[in-house]
Amino acid sequence: MAASNQRLEVTLDTQLESVDLAENIVTRVAQEAGFGEDELHRLGMAVREGVINAYNYGNCQDKRKKIHLAVEFEPETMVVHIVDEGCGFELSDVEDPLAEENLLRTSGRGIFLMRAFMDDLAVRKGPTGGADLVMFKKLPHADSGNGNSQAR
Amino acid sequence: MTLRGTCRQIDDVAIVDFSGKITLGEGSATLRQTVRDLVGQGQRKILLNLGDVDYIDSSGIGELVGAYTTVRGASGELKLMQLTKRVRDLIQITRLFTVFDVQSDEAAAINAFAKK
């Protein structure tokens, strides 16, 4: 695990246990950044869904592949990257789970929940061609109106 | 602890009291198997008590939906009761209140079955 003042990187195995591990890591970092209980839960849920996505759809449960988790801080935002080693995907290809015809599907809600729990979500191309899920959450002090706020 | 379920019966309603987390892996599998077993035993009125379930992810939501369709496919009814705030919020934002019959307490839930 490598860490700098502004960035924490973790390489996870493609296994179920990595879902809980990633959630725990990010919520601990977020707690140190001053997020309250409700926001910690939402952050944790979003990361959980992102790693599930990487595990199931990105890496197709292939234990030879890795999931790369990174957390970084911009002046007013916490940014989480979840990168898989699959083939990547387009957000526009993800069906709407709220559509009537999709309500009884047993899967397909992960991206929707990530968007619901985070302030913003983007999907980029990872360094090996997989998906880089990028999630943004405004830091607690960023809403205070204090122009001197700084990220940790 | 992931998920534990305890089954009991009130008249022709099978009630499963769950506690723990319904998440990808063991928790979701427990929910799935419990409902399938009940349907296999001939139960057609199944009530899931989620009062002690404080955490559910998209996989857990998917399993609840799967349980609903499994019971409905067997010409039965599946209802939920006593959702915690976090589970309720997830059911709300995923529009699954239009699918599930969610009751606030056991008496109301059992009456809801009886009305049909």
Verbal overview:
The complex is a heterodimer of chains A (152) and B (116). Chain A is an alpha+beta fold and 152 residues long. Chain A has one domain: 2-Layer Sandwich (Heat Shock Protein 90), CATH 3.30.565. In chain A, 30% of the residues lie in helices and 25% in strands. Chain A has helices at residues 17-32, 37-58, 110-117, and strands at residues 2-3, 7-13, 66-73, 77-83, 120-125, 131-138. A six-stranded antiparallel beta sheet of chain A has the order 1-2-3-4-6-5, covered by helices on one side. In chain A, a hairpin with a 5-residue loop joins strand 5 and strand 6. In chain A, helix 2 (37-58) runs antiparallel to helix 3. Residues 146-152 of chain A have low confidence and may be disordered. With 116 residues, chain B is α/β, with parallel strands linked by helices. Chain B has one domain: STAS domain (Transcription Regulator spoIIAA, 2-Layer Sandwich). Chain B has four helices and five strands; from the N terminus they run ββαβαβαβα. In chain B, strands 1-2-3-4-5 form a five-stranded mixed beta sheet, with helices on both faces. The longest helix of chain B is centred in the middle third of the chain and has 16 residues, at 58-73. The radius of gyration of chain B is 13 Å and the shape is globular. Chain B starts with a strand and ends with a helix. The mean pLDDT of chain B is 95. At the A-B interface, helix 2 and helix 3 of A face helix 2 and helix 3 of B.
Kindly summarize this structure in a few lines.
Chain A has one domain (2-143): Histidine kinase-like ATPase, C-terminal domain (Heat Shock Protein 90, 2-Layer Sandwich).
Number of DSSP E strands of chain A: 6
* Total E-strand runs of chain B: 5
- Any idea how many domains of chain B? 1
User: For the record, what CATH class of chain A applies?
Assistant: Alpha Beta
Q: Kindly report the oligomeric state of this protein.
A: heterodimer
Pairing-aware structural class of the strands and helices of chain A?
A: alpha+beta
The overall average pLDDT of chain B, rounded, is 95
pLDDT < 50 stretches of chain B: none
Note the overall shape of chain B. Answer: globular
How are helices and strands ordered from N to C of chain A?
Answer: EEHHEEHEE
What is the string of helix and strand elements of chain B? EEHEHEHEH
